[in-house]
Write a structure and sequence with these properties.
Blueprint: H1 2-31, E1 42-45, E2 48-51, H2 56-60, H3 68-82, H4 95-106, H5 135-151, H6 154-161, H7 215-222
Antiparallel strand pairs: 1-2
């Protein structure tokens, strides 16, 4: 019996020690500050500022030169290489992970994709198939337009005059220059606008049909008739002339 009592006491002691260690660990964990997830509001990818609240696939579609299909292909490949889920916020990625994504974007033509996915197939300078993004794409487009203008091709001429280039209609859209609106005839001084109410002292309006002033309007314009001038005396024959013979 004595040995059994010793074993029971020993087990109870070990249980108390174990409970005390667990309590101490729990207290230490409570005292530790909570781990805050790193999150950037704005992330720069391939020269473009992207919101950090977007996932990787949505963020890549914001880069100039990456369409929806190309952004999905590069995003899925990047997630597999980085070992992160596709719905990961781009603002929570490390700088090394973002650099790896940028290297994949810069070397998109080495991914073995079909040529129709790239935005520069048979480039003019080198004849190679490339995919430009960001500032490189803007510079290449500007160079192509300037070359067309120098050659005075149809496309270059249309670019030079600021007109549509791809055969669109221009009768109702794409108008440039001065706006051709409705020309309104200016009112001459002293004339009332058509349909305006007559005011005392103002010049009366013309009749719509006859195009002549009414009698009352003439009286208002000319004023009261002046008294008739006295009749002139008949002219007397000149003194030096002889009277006509009867």
């Amino acid at each position: 019996m004595a040995d059994e009592d010793k074993e029971i006491k020993k087990a109870e002691k070990q249980a108390k020690e174990a409970r005390g260690e667990k309590a101490e660990k729990a207290e230490k964990e409570e005292k530790k500050p909570a781990k805050v997830e790193r999150r950037e509001n704005i992330v720069r990818i391939a020269g473009m500022d992207v919101s950090g609240d977007l996932n990787i696939l949505r963020a890549l579609s914001q880069v100039k030169g990456l369409g929806q299909r190309m952004s999905v292909i590069i995003g899925v490949t990047a997630c597999e290489q980085l070992g992160v889920p596709a719905d990961t916020k781009v603002g929570s990625l490390q700088e090394t992970q973002i650099d790896q994504i940028e290297r994949m974007i810069a070397g998109a033509e080495r991914m073995g994709l079909p040529n129709w996915l790239y935005n520069r197939q048979g480039e003019f300078a080198s004849g190679a198939t490339k995919h430009f993004v960001g500032a490189d794409l803007v510079f290449d487009v500007r160079q192509n337009i300037e070359r067309e203008k120098t050659l005075r091709s149809y496309r270059g001429t249309r670019h030079a005059f600021g007109q549509k280039v791809r055969g669109q209609h221009t009768r109702s859209t794409g108008r440039t220059g001065r706006t051709m609106g409705v020309a309104k005839q200016k009112l001459m001084p002293g004339k009332a606008a058509p349909g305006a109410a007559a005011t005392p002292g103002a010049a009366p309006a013309k009749e719509e049909k006859a195009g002549k002033l009414t009698k009352a309007a003439k009286t208002a314009v000319a004023g009261p008739a002046a008294p008739a001038a006295p009749a002139k005396a008949e002219a007397k024959p000149a003194a030096g002339k002889k009277e006509e013979k009867r």
